[in-house]
Structures are given as structure tokens and as C-alpha cells.
Amino acid sequence: MAGAGKSTVGSALAQELGWAFVDSDHLIEAAYGARLQDITDKLGKAAFLDTEGKVICAIKANRTVIATGGSVIYRDAAMRHLAALGPVVYIDVPFHLIEERIARNPERGIAMNPGEKLEDIFNERKTLYTYYATLRCPAEGKNPAQCARWIRDHLPEGFLKGDAA
């Protein structure tokens, strides 16, 4: 979900592991030469989700932590691709913190249709995040470095010995 800390925790995890870090939102912004929210507004939610899914499916990476947009969860092909690259981590942050963080950064890009409420999107996505996640990091009360260490410590047995993403 927007505001969960995917980019911040992902960057900290990449440092912790000595791996590369990629933020898929930045890939989309680079491809369009525009801010994510402007792209979302121009394309509309469905077309944006399709674009995001295509960008994710094009990622070929090993030993890389990938932070995605929270809306990637709506495209099964993208989620299957990510799972083929390595464990999928759900950074579980309660709604009140998400709402607080988004309020502090209103320019944050969120794929929403007009009239959709943030809490409704949060609840809808939570079910999907739980479904697709290999790991669920309980993030409340943890700073990004603590989340990164928690994720590292809970990666599947033997994962770090391989070359998965």
C-alpha cells in the first residue's frame, strides 16, 4: 500500500543483503518522463494497472530487491513474475499509519478511481497482499532498518545461498 514504506524498507534491505535495489515506480516515471500521479491521472486506473503490470513483467533481475507500487497486486501475471524472481514480502502497516503518511505526502501517486476511498482500497488490497505474500512483515513499531532485518531473518531457508531476486 502507498505509505507502507516499500521503497525505504526495500532500500534498507538491499543494503543489508549487499544487493541492488530497483523501485518499479521510478521505472514507470522514467519511461513516461512524468510523475507517477500525473501518469495515473492521464491513463486512468485500468490502463495504469496494465502499464504497471507490463513494466513488472519486463524486469529481469537477480540479487535485487524490487520495490513495487502497491497496485501491482491487481495484476496476477505481474505477481506470478515477482514470485518467480524470489520471495514476495508484504509490509503490513495498519490503516491509521498509512492514512497519516499519505496525508504528509499528498503528491504520492495512488491508483484510484474518482470517488474511491483510501480505506476501501486498503481493505481490498490487504486481502490480495496476504494471498500473494511469501512473508508478512509486521511493521508497526519498527523503523525501516528493523523491518529490513526482520525480512532478512525470515527469508526462506537457503534462499540467500541462491541467485534469486
Search tags:
mainly alpha, 4 strands, 165 residues, two-stranded parallel sheet, 53% helix
Q: How would you describe the overall organization of this protein?
A:
- By secondary structure, the protein is mainly α.
- Helix content is 53%, strand content 10%.
- It contains 8 helices and 4 strands.
- It has helices spanning 6-17, 24-32, 36-43, 45-57, 76-85, 95-104, 118-132, 144-154, and strands spanning 20-23, 64-67, 89-92, 135-138.
- The protein has a two-stranded parallel sheet with strand order 1-2. It has a two-stranded parallel ribbon with strand order 3-4.
- The chain is globular.
- The two termini are 21 Å apart.
Distance N to C terminus: 21 Å
Stretches where pLDDT is under 50 for at least 5 consecutive residues are: none
Largest sheet: 2 strands, parallel
| Alpha plus pi helix count | 8
**Secondary structure: helix percent:** 40-55%
Mean pLDDT: 92
What is the number of beta strands?
Answer: 4
Structural class of the secondary elements? mainly alpha
Question: Reading side by side through the largest sheet, how are the strands ordered?
Answer: 1-2
